[in-house]
Amino acid sequence: RIEAVRHGEYDWGSYKRGFNWLKDNGYLDKADEVIFANDSCYAPLTDFKPMFRTMDKRKDLDFWGDLQNTRFTSHLQSYFMVFKKNVFGSRVFKHFINAVRHQPDSSLYITEYEVKLTPYLYGYGYKWDSYMPYKELAYLQDSEKNSYPLTLAKKYGHQFIKRRIFTSSLMNYENEGALLRYVYEVNPARYFDIAAEIDEWFIPDDLKEKKNAR
Hints:
This protein is of the alpha+beta class. The protein has helices spanning 10-24, 49-56, 85-88, 91-98, 107-123, 149-156, 176-186, 188-195, 205-213; strands at 33-37, 41-42, 63-65, 68-69, 75-76, 80-84, 128-130, 161-162. The strands form 3 sheets. Strands 1-6-3-7 form a 4-stranded mixed beta sheet. The protein has a two-stranded antiparallel ribbon with strand order 2-8.
């Protein structure tokens, strides 16, 4: 089911509405996991299967996500999160998601919901981790590891590239042209998806020719 409604509560408002629709229509009774994902990324870069195979082996986890951040406090980044039944069926989870409200500034959706959800659930005994091995990424100095998209993709099999890498709203410490060349090598179709949306000045001349010749 796809539903498009302007509600003014960003991704968290959509998560709230989607979750409640699934609950009210009985779909959660049949589900083992619920995924919250928004459209702030290009993904998968190649294939989601290795990520899910890896995380399915983590029987100790009650919820997980693609990547975490330590700004303010350790937390999963909210563009991709997976919750097992014992979490999404709990009273505390339902309380949190239904407390989402319109905020006067978009940054408050991060500080009030993204940053707070992980420690909130952890405080009730639920265990969590991220697919990207955050501790191994400590040598990447910024707490926002999505600012190193080429390293994450090449060395760690990262499947997400934040759209904001190709704007001025997310610091990128790596060369966009090199990133695009790598994407073209591993998945030309994904490269063309990205190239169709971004400003041409990000695209190296040799890749522009491929885009225009398509």
